[in-house]
Specification:
Oligomer: single chain
Shape: flat
Order of helices and strands: HHEEEEEEEEEH
Helix content: 25-40%
CATH class of one domain: Mainly Beta
Number of helices: 3
Strand content: 25-35%
Low-confidence stretches: none
Largest sheet: 5 strands, mixed
Length: about 150
């Protein structure tokens, strides 16, 4: 029986790997040439203080075609390796206005670009307040059922 469980786990891991890994020729291609763009994304909070934005989406476009897209780290920083030429760099984050800048990337060079996003004043959709007690009750009932089943 342990062998069956091990085989089933290995099969599930193989399926997960096949689902999450992009084996297309575009994803596997090695990019030659170009340069590096690094920077940080900041957003103004309700007190008009600049704070680093985590998980902001930074995307670079060449002639309207997506070239590279990354997310910012814990300190709002990002690094992108881009082909040389003129690129549009767009930054998006929920609750903030989208911002786009144009940059020229030179062969083998490193460029720096920081973004400062303004609040959009559009509310971010969240759970309705009345759903939280319902979710808590459902989780409590499920916990009791599992505990009762384990006693048998």
């Amino acid at each position: 029986m342990n062998r069956r469980i091990a085989l089933a786990c290995m099969a599930l891991m193989a399926l997960a790997l096949a689902y999450f890994v992009d084996f297309s020729s575009d994803a596997m291609a090695v990019r030659t040439g170009g340069g590096m763009l690094k920077g940080a994304v900041w957003g103004y909070n309700m007190y008009d203080e600049a704070t680093p934005l985590v998980w902001a989406r930074v995307s670079a476009y060449s002639d309207g075609v997506l070239v590279e897209s990354v997310s910012t780290g814990l300190n709002g920083s990002f690094v992108m390796f881009l082909p040389s030429g003129l690129l549009n760099v767009t930054v998006e984050h929920p609750g903030f206005k989208t911002q786009t800048k144009v940059i020229a990337i030179s062969e083998g060079a490193m460029a720096q670009m920081n973004f400062y996003l303004e609040r959009s004043e559009i509310p971010i959709p969240e759970f309705e307040a009345y759903l939280l007690p319902i979710i808590a009750v459902v989780l409590l009932v499920l916990t009791k059922a599992v505990a009762k089943r384990k006693r048998r």
